[in-house]
Amino acid sequence: MRKSTKILANVLLLLALIALPATAQVGKAFTYQGRLTDAGSPPYGTYDVEFRLFDALVGGAQVGPTFTFNDLLVTNGLITARLDFGSVYTGAGRWLQISVRPGASVGAFTPLAPRQELTAAPYASGLALPVAETSAYAGTSLLVSNTSTGIALGGVTTNADGTAIVGSKTSVPSAGKLGSEFTTTLGGASTYEGGIVGTSAQIGGYSATTSSGYAGFLCESDGWNAIAGVTRTGNGIWAQATEATGAAARLIGSGISTTSQGSALEISGGGINVPGAGLNSMTPVFIHRATADNVSGAVTYIDHPLTNEKSGAILIVTQNWTAGSTYNAHEIGVFYSTSVSKWAVFNEDLASMPSGASFNVLVFGNTPSKVAKAGETAAHE
């Protein structure tokens, strides 16, 4: 055999998975097959072959380890080697650099040009489960994009004790991220960590359930905030009930024991704003005005969907002495009239209620929730 160090190469790169039993897992290894020509003819004998992976066709940086096969048997110019560069496939391009020398030679390897680009293997279009991968990539390890109307990434479990999608983070202090990370200077902090983090121009996180008694979105925290929302001009947390039996938000101030109860709602750093609240507005905060149609002696009856026929409602009423309102210089009280099924405001000294007198009304409902989970009672409301 001629010990020529000048080897002309006509290399054919095939990425083919080695046949595995049905129960085996497909790894990152692939079988390389190439054909050499030595002085225009396919050689026979042994050759030393070196494989290195790069991130560019020319130049660039090596990715992963170097594999050297000494005295590799070559028959009719055909060489075969099984390569496993590990977790180096991040979606960026990869090119295989192949260098050879005669097996009896101890001289330098001769690089074959050009480098061979690694293209997708047929198996890459599918996914064998289970999959457990580790990436040291500084960017996004897994990015799923759907440009149509479908779901980019979904999870389904058919086991009652299973979990469809879980995000975890082992670094302290935060644990668990599912969604896009975001950084902000709002609230006096530079970053926010949470069990689930989502960013969007409209809605950052979304979940749904069609089963009564279950939660479409459930968060748990020990000592931190289970759910946190931060916004500059929009809503930190937004919720809506689309049916009369629903509740946009349900807060239960229950502790671990019956003797220790937490707060159902805690407000700090601002007041409560009710957009659209005004005279007879369809909001839980509204202004009631005494008129000839609703005044009877010292009493003015409130006619509002949130209070009519709601004897169990809780009303907080104060006098509204803004411009345009008639001054009512009397202490007032509130009661529910069973004769007309309405709440009423009255002057405690029984003086006639002046027409035009206005009152701020805040309504709390205390009727049992119709969508409460089985076993829960109105005592939770």
Overview of this structure, please?
This protein is mainly beta and 381 residues long. It folds into 3 domains: 8-125, Immunoglobulin-like (Sandwich); 178-238, no CATH class; 249-259 and 275-381, no CATH class. Helix content is 0%, strand content 22%. It is built from no helices and 15 strands.
Helix share of residues?
under 10%
What are the low-pLDDT stretches, counting only 5+ consecutive residues below 50?
Answer: 1-23, 172-177, 199-204, 368-381
The CATH architecture category of the largest domain equals Sandwich
> Can you tell me the overall shape?
rod-shaped
Number of helices: 0
Let me know the average pLDDT: 75
* H and E string: EEEEEEEEEEEEEEE
Identify the CATH class of the largest domain.
Answer: Mainly Beta
The radius of gyration is: 36 Å
Number of domains: 3
Structural class: mainly beta
Calculate the terminal CA-CA distance, rounded to whole Å. Answer: 91 Å
How large is the share of residues in beta strands?
Answer: 15-25%
CATH topology of the largest domain: Immunoglobulin-like
In this structure, how is the largest beta sheet organized?
Answer: 5 strands, antiparallel
Number of DSSP strand runs: 15
